[in-house]
Each structure stands twice: as structure tokens, then as C-alpha cells.
Amino acid sequence: MLRFGISRMPPEGTDDGVWLDSLVARGHAAVELPFVHDFPWKEKRCRAFGELAAERGIAVSVHAPYFAVLTVDDQDKRKLTLAALEHTMKLGKALGAHTIVAHTGYVKDRTPEQLHDLVADGLRTIEPKVRHLGVALGLETSGTDRAFGSLGDIALIANEFSFVRPVIDWAHVHAKSGGALTTTEAFSSVIAFLRTQFPGWAIDPLHTQFTDNEFGPKGEIRHVPYGAGTLRAKPLAMAAAAAGLRMIVISEAREETSHDAILADLRAGEAGARPEPAAAGRSPASGAIVFPEPVQIARDGDAWVTLDLHRPVRLTNPDKVFFPDDGITKGDLIQYYAAIAPILLPHLAGRALSMSRYPDGIEGNMFYEKQCPSHAPEWIVTAPIHSSHRGEPIDFVTAPDRESLVWLANMGCIEMHPWLSRADRAELPDFAVFDLDPQEGATWEQVVHVARLVNVLLERLGLAGYPKTSGATGIHIYVPFEAEASYRRVRRFVETLGRMIAGADSENATMEWDIPKRGPRVFIDHNQNVGGKTIASVYSVRPKPGAPVSTPILWDELDEVDPATFTMATIWERLRQYGDLFAPVLTGGQHLAPAEAALGLPQLDEVE
Question: Which pLDDT score, from 0 to 100, does residue 607 have?
């Protein structure tokens, strides 16, 4: 659960591999490179060191230069500090680093609002260049009244920038609290606060720093040898283990004896940890996968009930195996959707869901259900949408909260299938979908090739598209629009581009509706863009062996991506690296009419 490491550069003249081996021999599994004064290494050295560390299972992080702060307001200096932060993150990518640690800056005579705006403005400046690096920017908690950066400050900033994470300097928190971090309960309260402010995937593992210290009324004064102050590692380890929180602990002590003593206390704390009193039940999960934000359930007659959600949700058969080849259970599915909720819910907000139910797992019978069942809890929010087939509204289920996702998973909904439009404007989709479906004999390379052709056409039309793996063998490309055009217009737009691609590259792409005539090519399915039709949501599990997850990908990584690597078990590291790459799909901002005009498409009525 806890990975311990030190903040240290390899000694001059020492072979990197030999030095890393010495860390492993001492029980270290992490190292933070303090680039605090300058940039001692270039990209080539960083890449070589990162490869050696990865071979030994050592997590690498980097502390950015002390001058690379976000609250500098002198414009010339600000350009230099932001450039330094950007450069550190690029070196971090070469290193394979999971986090770049940075000090936020100093308060001076500015208000919290002014400081927040200054930090946000700086991050907006570097965001286009760093958000897709796959390296988190960790903002370190402040240790004195002179420095900006409480946990609350960092939470507000992280809520706006998906690549920002908190870095907890326990010595700083100890100093700012007046020496309150002396018990397991005190550390537990900080961990509990973190979980209210950050999604589980953003703090799992939680990157932290640790050393003993002296402090005064205004905060930290100095670091001291471990044992000379009042901060201890054992209660921290006990709190983290009891909470089920994975953590990286970097010792910033100067003495080797302090490193050893901190590590010994951490291990003693882990060994002595006890479950939290609130966790009186058990996890719904099987233990085959490590999830962030674990849920607890307790017996309720012949069923189970959740303990730690805002509303108790009644569950049945959590131990039923849903993915036989992998030992993944219904309880794992429930825990997955509970943990993924913070990042998935915005993509389901206000949308009707078609329930794709697998009550006996992926090898059992499946059936679709549109009408919300009568036995649904009274708090399930439904969306009545008129059905021309029935001649009356269908009450579709929606998922506005974590409890709704848990209930759906308990109903055997392995997949989440939302409409392309929101329920309050059901006839107007707010994105178009290019569903690239490889037919029998087609390769992933062909799918990538066709996806790139779609992107070329979109770019020439001035439009941005966002790809995700289908969770099977294909790619879905979403093009967000303002909700102002009918499904008919959106479908015609996708069909037009699809036919252009199929006409230009008939060897790899097809729009042929007759399946036997498609051959080993990629079928561009424009008919997904129909009112009432649904497609597996981003971050949805798919009913395939391995429990694959439909995952956003970057255009630059298409050639390297293996969609099979994105699963219910592995998605968490992906999120920790990149946050929500599909967030721009939610913002809309693009208009279909200019693209229609550029393609020479005549106007259509706004009615489906």
C-alpha cells in the first residue's frame, strides 16, 4: 500500500543502475529527483534513468525548481517561471515520472481570490503544452503563512485543471495545524478531507513528502532529524492502511538514519493497522482488482446494503462471477462504477439510458430494457421521452449520482448506454459519433488509418474530434456540437464524410450496409446518429473477456495504443496520468452549419 522513497540525486560518478540497486536493497520503491535549483539533466539522461528505474519497479517523481512558482506577477519573470515549469514537466515525461512537484508561490499582499486567479491564469498558459504529457503537476501544500496553497486552494485549482494533483507535505500540514498530526485519527481526518475534495483516481496513489520539523506560530521553521520533533510516520501508515489508500511517501530528510527510521515506522504502522470502525461490513469487490474509493457493504437479510453512500443501495449476489475467464464478479462491477463515478457522471448527466442487462454475466443471456422497472428505488430519476412506436412516453433511467450507477451495476448493466442528446432536448444531439467498426479480417492498423482520415477531414472543416476506444476492437470519434441541429442533419454529416473516405480508400473503409459485402475493412457506421439509439459511453465497461473499458485516447498515440490494455483494472493509472481527455466533448462550442456549407450540403428541416 505504501511506497517509500527519498529525495536525492545520484552521487556524481556513480552509475545510475548501481545507485538504483542500492535503493532497492534498502527497501525503497520511489525516488524524487530534486531539480530545485536548475536542470542538471537533459532529456537523454532523463530517459535513460527512467528506463532503469522502471526496470527496478521504482516510481520516479521530480521536484521543480523553487523559482518555478505560479504566483509571480512581474510579466518578464512570469514567462521564465512558467517556462521552467513546462520544461520540468517535459523532462518528467522523458523520465516516466508520475508527478512533478511544484511550490505554488507566496501570498505577499494579495487576497486569496487574486492568488487563485494568478495561479489559474498561469496554468491556462501552459495547459495546451502539458495537459497531454501524461505527467501530473503536483501542487505542494504550503508550510507557512507566507506561502499560498492550502488543501482547499489546491482542490479548487485541480477542479479546473485535470492535470493538477495535490502533493501533501506532512511536515507542512503538521506545522500549519500547530503540531496536530500526532495520532492516527489526525492523519485519518486529513485523508477523509482529501476524499471529499478529490476523486479517488486523482489521489490513488497519493503523492506525499515526509520529514520531521520544527515550527512556530507562522508555520514551519526548519527540518530536523527524525525523532527530534513530534511528527511520526507510524500513525500515518496506520491511517492510510485503515482507509485503503495507496500512498507514495518521499523522505526529504538529510540524514540516512532518518530515512531508515521513517521507513521502519511506516512498515510498523502498516503491520499494526486496523480496519476503520465505519467499515463494519466488507467490500463488494472480489479482491482481484485494486480500486480507489472502496465501498463497504453489510448484510441485510438475504441481500446486502451499501454503508458509505449518501443513500443506502440494496445489492444482491455481489460474489456472482460476471467475467468467468478473469474471476471478475458483479461486486467488482459495482465497485468499478462507484469509483469511476466522479469522472463518468458528467458524461451521463441529463441523458436517458438504455439498460443493457447481463444478470448472469457476459456468458449469460442479455436483454435491453428501456422502461424503468417498477421495482426501482423511488429516488431513481427518470426521463420521460415520447415513443412514436408506443404512442406514449417511455420513462428512461438516468444516472445523476453515484448511487444510481451502483444500482444500475447491481441490475447487471455492465455497459452504460446514454443517448447522444439530453432528455430536455431529446431531438437535438450535442455530438456526432463516427463508429469505426472493423469487420472480420480487418486489423487495428486499418482502424487507426481510417480514424486518421476522419481527423484530417474534421480538421479541414475546422472541427475538433475526440477518439476513444470502443472497448472492443474499434474506435469511436466524437465531434461535439451545440445542441441546435437535428439527428437527421448530424447523421447526414457523418454519412457524407464516411462516403468521402470510403470512396477515396475503398481498400480500408466501407459504408456497405450488406455485411457479406464489407470484407476485411473498417465499416463507418453513421446510423449510430439516430434518436433513441445509444452507444457505449466513455469509461463504460464492455461485456468482453478482460473487462475492457471504453477509454479516451490522444491522436498522437493512436499508433502505440493497444485497446486491450484499457480494462477495469488498469484504467486508474490512465486517469491519474491524463485526467478526463473527453472533457472537451462536454463543452460543445462547435457548430454544424459552417461544415455543412463547406461540404455543399443543402439545408434540411430541423425535424427528425
Answer: 45
Alpha helix (H) residue ranges in 184-255 = 184-197, 233-243
At 513 the three-state DSSP class reads coil
- What integer is the mean pLDDT of 388-397? 86
User: Across all residues in the chain, what is the average pLDDT?
Assistant: 94
> Stretch 220-241: mean pLDDT, rounded?
95
| Long-range pairs of 73-77 with CB within 8 A, sequence gap ≥ 24 | 73/118
Q: Which residues, at least 6 apart from 68, have a Cβ–Cβ distance to it below 8 Å?
A: 81, 82, 84, 85, 88, 102, 103
Cis ω before 205 (30° cut-off from 0): yes
**β partners of residue 510:** 523
Phi, psi values for residue 117, rounded to 5°: -65, -40
- CATH topology for 431-599 is DNA primase, PRIM domain (3.90.920)
Does the domain formed by 2-271 have CATH 1.20.1560.10?
no
CA atoms within 13 A of residue 143's CA, in its CB half-sphere: 22
Q: Percent of the chain beyond pLDDT 70?
A: 98
pTM of the model: 0.89
Fold of 297-418: DNA primase, PRIM domain (3.90.920)
